[in-house]
Write a structure and sequence with these properties.
Structural class: alpha+beta
Oligomer: single chain
Shape: rod-shaped
Order of helices and strands: EEEH
Largest sheet: 3 strands, antiparallel
Radius of gyration: 40 Å
Number of strands: 3
Number of helices: 1
Strand order of the largest sheet: 1-2-3
Length: about 130
């Protein structure tokens, strides 16, 4: 059902462009579109969408893409948090090793000093 001014197909040609009238394949609304004449194909016009339906389709595609990107980002963040936890525990272990090593070295230095003093006393007695 079309009104008297709803022409289907090529309506006008100008400077290598054509104005095409068609019914949207989704909502059946009448729409006109300007396109390069080389891009016009009557068979593909049956699947063409009006501006509003085209925007809906694009928006749905962007939402799907953004949801996928969000899930991927959250997965990456969780992985990085796990790596951070591992690195923090490794740093704590490293700090504990350094502190234990420092204590051992201090004890060894103290023991060496004590032994040196005892040896010096023995050497002076003789």
């Amino acid at each position: 059902m079309s009104s008297w001014d709803e022409q289907i197909g090529i309506i006008d040609r100008k400077d290598g462009f054509v104005v095409v009238g068609f019914h949207c394949s989704r909502c059946e609304a009448y729409w006109q579109m300007s396109m390069p004449q080389d891009d016009y194909n009557e068979a593909t016009m049956k699947e063409e969408l009006c501006y509003a339906c085209s925007l809906r389709k694009r928006l749905a595609s962007e939402i799907r893409h953004n949801r996928f990107t969000y899930r991927l980002a959250m997965k990456t963040i969780r992985s990085m948090e796990e790596q951070l936890n591992v690195l923090v525990s490794e740093r704590d272990n490293h700090e504990n090793l350094l502190q234990s090593g420092s204590r051992i070295i201090q004890e060894q230095d103290t023991t060496i000093r004590d032994l040196k003093k005892q040896l010096d006393k023995r050497a002076k007695k003789k």
